[in-house]
Amino acid sequence: MHDYLVPPGDATKVPDKKYVEWKTEFDVLSGLDELQHAVHKLGVGRDLAVVREAIDGFRPDIVFNLLESFYEIPSYDHYVPGYLELLRQPYTGCNPRGLMLARDKALSKKLLAYHRIPSPAFAVFGRGKPVRRPARLKFPLMVKSLTADGSIGLAQASIVQNDAKLEDRVRYIQTTFETDVIAEEYILGREVYVPILGNRRLTTLPVMELEFGRLAEGSQPIATSKVKWDWKYQEARGIELKFPTDLGDELARRIVRTSKRVFRALGLSGYARIDLRVTEDGRVFVIEANPNADLGYGEELHESAEAAGFTYPRLLQRILNLGLAYQAEWRQAI
User: Fold this and answer.
1) Which of 47, 157, 234, 321 is deepest in the core (most CB within 10 A)?
2) Are 263 and 274 in contact (CB under 8 A)?
3) What is the mean pLDDT of the chain?
């Protein structure tokens, strides 16, 4: 885990862990403890040497990988499982190639287009280059970082209606987050999430929908950073995750089938959450794939797993088993 997210020794005394930044790490450690696994918790900063030293000293059966970036750069996260593979060390979560493909939103959309999986039209604006919108790209557009995750930089201002606003938002994202920018056609519709577990054989967990509740007048229903992470804002506006009951069998099957195709097209493994938009006329668009989705207690993956009959510790054990199975498959491949 990141060195600044290692739960304190007296974490059990914190009255409300819902608001602490190390909640996921604490939840996973608690779940592994409930499973009676012997666990060595390791905080990692900018030095991979501590990982090798811990592996040599503790000799784990598997590494539970909770790192979401390296050098605080999200697109570097694939180097961590890559390093573990060089050490022949089993680990949980997605493989390095899948992480690399999914984190680059433009590259992943190109792969989806090859497989004829619908996703919004888009354009990429590199730092230091003119902001010229292709004529084929129609407003309104959603402007966001090309590689950042977790709704970083997403706000109501991310939806732009003209070229002047597009350039302003592109420059803001480039300057603030020091990344290239992707602008994609904004799909108005229901936002649904499909959690998936597996390597070659995939298990989809129940579909979830983000209901936006009572948004401020003029606001668009998008998962902004505030919607995603501000618990008080969620409670005040009635924003919540639910299991939709009105999709209908045919649409539900298409959503699940599309999500599995995305998982396979990007070469993902372990566990992921596929984010989609469903329009009023029933068209399904893939927004993005999120390998190594948040494993915190009460987050989308856990809530969906619980609806499928998995306790939280059982979900963690399934993820451990998938990591061990992936390593065995990978070794056979080479």
Assistant:
1) 234
2) yes
3) 92
SS3 (DSSP) at 304: helix
Q: How far apart are CA 192 and CA 251, in angstroms?
A: 12
Domain residue limits, the chain: 3-100, 106-185, 189-333
Instruction: Please say if the pLDDT value at position 330 is more than 70.
Output: no
Q: What is the per-residue burial (b if ≥16 Cβ within 10 Å, else e) of 233-244?
A: ebeebebebeeb
What's the CA angle centered on 328, arms 324 and 333, to 5 degrees? Answer: 145
User: For residue 293, what are the CA distances in angstroms to 35, 109, 194, 196, 319?
Assistant: 21, 19, 11, 10, 12
Percent of the chain with pLDDT over 70: 96
Pull the structure tokens for residue 40: 């060595």
pLDDT confidence bin for 333, thresholds 50/70/90: low
Local structure of 183: helix, strand or coil: strand
Mean local confidence (pLDDT), 81-99: 95
Q: CA 141 to CA 144: how far, in whole Å?
A: 10
Other C-beta atoms lying within 10 Å of the C-beta of residue 245:
7
* CATH T-level assignment (fold) for domain 189-333: D-amino Acid Aminotransferase; Chain A, domain 1 (3.30.470)
- Say if residues 203 and 272 touch (Cβ distance below 8 Å): no
pLDDT at 329: 63
| Euclidean distance between the first and the last CA atom of the chain, given in angstroms as a whole number | 29
The 10s digit of each residue's pLDDT in 4-44 is: 999 988 777 676 666 788 999 999 999 999 999 999 999 99
User: Are 194 and 204 contacting, i.e. CB atoms less than 8 angstroms apart?
Assistant: yes
Which CATH architecture describes the domain 106-185?
A: 2-Layer Sandwich (3.30)
